[in-house]
Amino acid sequence: MTAPSTQTAKPATGIPALLKTAFINALIALVLFSLMVGIRTEAGSDGQLTYWTRFGELASLVAVVFGGSIVIDLLRQWIGPTGADKLVPPSVQSGMSFVGRYLAPALLIFTLLVPVIFYNQRYILDLAILVLTYVMLGWGLNVVVGLAGLLDLGYVAFYAVGAYSYGLLATNFGWSFWVCLPLAGILAAFWGVLLGFPVLRLRGDYLAIVTLAFGEIIRLVIINWQELTGGPNGVSGIPRPSFFGIPLDNSDDGLAAKLGIEYSSTHRIVFLFYLILALALLTNWVTIRLRRLPIGRAWEALREDEVACRALGINTTTTKLTAFATGAMFGGFAGAFFATRQGFISPESFTFQESALVLAIVVLGGMGSQLGVALAALAMIGGFELFRSLETYRMLVFGMAMVLIMIWRPRGLIGHRAPTVYLTKAQAISSDLVKEGHG
Amino acid sequence: MDYFAQQLINGLVLGSIYGLIAIGYTMVYGIVGMINFAHGDVFMIGGFIALITFLILVSLGLTAIPVILLVVLLVAMAITALYGWTIERIAYRPLRHSFRLAPMLSAIGMSFVLTNYSQVAQGARVKPIPPFITGGYTLHESADGFVIQLSNIQIMVVITTIVLLALFTWLVSRTRLGRDMRACEQDQTMAALLGVDVDRTISMTFVIGAALAAVAGLMYLLYYGLVDFFMGFVAGIKAFTAAVLGGIGSLPGAMLGGLAIGLIETFWSAYFSVEYKDVAAFSILIVVLIFMPTGLLGRPEVEKV
Prior knowledge:
Oligomer: heterodimer
Helix content of chain B: over 70%
Structural class of chain B: mainly alpha
Largest sheet of chain B: 2 strands, antiparallel
Helix content of chain A: 55-70%
Number of strands of chain A: 6
Strand content of chain A: under 5%
């Protein structure tokens, strides 16, 4: 990147300037929204397009922009320029590290207890499973994006490979979940390597677009290869997981009967919950261990500077491939879990939106931070659930949030790579210690 | 042979539309060095604005087709250009010196915003318009009754593209703005030191790119007779493929790449399978990036530390 060549305009000071900016912004908004919001078109039953006006909505939107512009300008004058990296005072930082040290174990214990606390609340259990699935996907993608710094926009392809591997093997050959799970991971890793090979030479944005194209290709093939995948109708009747061979159902050789307790459908949910928790923790554990190995260090070095990496003799080819394969493998595991939980999979579950959602979780969590990703998944999926009634607006808000996070906290909400050691106060060095006068 | 000729015409028309979108990608990449992921959605917005303007004009009782077309074209270009300007101002300018993945992620967010904004504002259903420009010429009729058609709308798309391209080439090579743009492409700091307003130049790049995307949106609307909120995604990736194929950063390359992608897609659909036509386009992107990362007319990228 070249050095900053221009300064961003200083926020206007004084009431007239403030109003002038707001007025200009409102005017721009008026033009932008005039046709798109002010006029609503709809195809009638005879295919004829009709339109009606919505000037009320248009006016209120413009008013919101006017007011919002004033508020943001005022906030800017109070807080000062945004975007500048401010050093966190040591007292706050030690407090944060204190919280950080105990937050993860506390969260883990709470998560372990979720099925006990919310045993009778099916909705919360289902939501928790969903959140954990995304935590796992986030951790898996974190290996690729957060550690190795390779922007992967097609992560959902590996999720799909895992899901379809299990779905097809189980429905066609009757293989059990526990046989298919490693297979799904291996197949997804294989695809990861397959994708990794050609794109090794690419970097940054190009890589992102190619992975996106790859994800779309996988989805389109799934849709169109009807004989194998069932096309848009998907695969249904995927068997539920068993407790290492013992089915979790109401039959005589079910787990409940063997243990001599009364059968309840919640057993399966609780089992699924612990299953995904175990898978997610496995992902986390492997990632943490890998980070301490040379390969993990190489990933992080690759993220920081690829050229320097090569100069130091790190084999960037294997480094990138292992990152892709590891990330893909976890995506495959998560996919197999998704298939067994849903019992039905279709290409609709594996759109680009899903990739972007997982990516947003990683970015929001602060790339590379395991705890951050978990919290981001909780916030994101929880937020989606809260706004379930506003179905159409939530992707809009999601997109806006992504832009705003990039502007305000490009390093994510939690993770930031502040220097580990820095001077707390300026010190004058005695002239005895330096050659020419004081330093 | 006749079938081939007909597909050739169709492919060239489709390629013109892709080429117009691809110019927006290639210009922005050349100057700012980022993939404007939201550009496909700007094209979609352009199509919607053209549709709405068109509806209003028709309901006002205007009948002169050239007048309607001209007004629709100008309105769509103007408003979409403002969209381009606003997007750059809000989502990209604050990130210009951020870490390298930030603009890309912000652009993805912006793409979601635009897609869902138009879904919320205009509904999810496909919006058809009645055929507006009809008629055409029969170029050749073979013995077995196969007719090669060249419709007026196809002629219009190609002519508009050629005119815009000529105008645009003139703009880049002969005007002050074009010189500034080329200067910024080479070295922003140096350009700034020599008195080029870098911010303004980058803004203008986005404005011009968006205006061309709006033209593409209008052409798409007239050619296919419909728009919907999701059309920007696939069209955007294909146009990006075109930009890469032609050599990103190169303007004639973008047009050439657009034509190539249009032809490949049309021939693939005609001779192989319609279902896999998008797979074909995406595969080309991957293959080109692997074997020919600089594209047809691009300059090799120098790796700087």
